[in-house]
Amino acid sequence: MRRDHLGAYNEAVDFTEHIDRIAEESIVYEDAVAQAPWTLPSHASVFTGTYPWEHGATNQNAHLETDGPTLAEKFEREGYTTAAVTPNIWVTPHKGMTDGFGTVENFLGLGGLTPFEKLYRSASKFLERMDERIRRPIVEPLNRMFDAADIDTACRSAETIDAAIDFLGAHAGDRDPFFLFVNLMEPHEPYDPPQEYLDRHGVRDLSAVPDDNEAFFVGETDYSELRAAYRASADYTDDLIGRLDRALSTHGLDETVLVVAGDHGQALGEGDFFGHQFTVREEVVSVPLLVRHPDESPRRDDRLVELRELYRLLPRVAGIDSYEGLGTDTALGGYEFPEVFKRYIDEDRMDHYYRKYRYYRTGDEKFVKSEREDGTVSYTRTDLETGTERRVEGEHRRLLDELDDAEESQTSRSTIEENEAIERRLEELGYR
């Protein structure tokens, strides 16, 4: 969900009344930044509180493994009933992403059975250890087989909300604490909300809107139709969240802490990008974040926050953690070459789109390091208010390079904050 497609963040939007009402009762974080621009690494950062280069779940063969407890395990250890409802193929037991959830609904049918999960995990670990040059010839035919089989990629949004409401109904009377993670795939491509939403937003021909296998269409696509389809999907998302919120009230669970967040946004033609896997544009990494808490007064919070801080924030608002460190001067992020999506790129556009990124954000500027497969590196510095790009000087380059070397040097958010020399240099550059 793009932040600018919610009325809570953009007064021009008039089709998200349910989320907007929730926002009026919530703490609205106006500047939240995701740690990666696509699902697997972004969710892994939320579930572990770490950066992509620390947790390593950044590609199709990656399997999340962490020394510390996952977010769900934190609640599980405190006696919470934990459950996840997600049709997302990346947020599954197979990827190690649902550890700590007592029950998981992935809508996988036979594929969700334990033997298949164990087989997938073993295969993933085996492939992950392979050299990329050996792995690709093995993985690519498998990917084409899945594509040819036309595996169901439906968002299953209505089914997701139905299952979540069933969970609430089952736990309404016992008053035992619960942690429920609900992953709505709307408004993710391919856009296919019910017809009434398409009609409402003037979508004339849905077949003309690119799907997730048509990520590159420079000069070939009517962006207005694409954006209308996205608005229709965002509108549908709002109504689904409205259903979930009404269910909380119906089942007497009004005191439940409710968090609404996006794991990433979406480019809708800006810079000739569609999607999110190949860019760290602001439309993709700047995300909505709302927290409705019965004991917290509604307010707007303009501090820069990292989405991964939910790992500490949620246990705190639940009263099982004393974390008070929300907010930062610089939000960090990045991801590796997204191998799983490489087959979508035409060879003549490969060098332009297929990259490894590191980025950090202040409240005013964004610094990005982009690396091609051949090792060529470029740096950009962008003024967030004006969009003006400037040269990236030596000190900022060194900071980005340190993020890139974090796996070896153990550079992290805490290291940056504790390093007095870096803090002094940042202050000399005008940052608080």
TrEMBL record:
Signal peptide: none annotated. Residues 382-401 have a biased composition (Basic and acidic residues). SUPFAM superfamilies: Alkaline phosphatase-like. Residues 1-309 form the Sulfatase N-terminal domain. Pfam families: Sulfatase. Residues 379-421 are annotated as: Disordered. It comes from the Archaea. CDD domains: sulfatase_like. This is Sulfatase. It comes from Natronomonas aquatica.
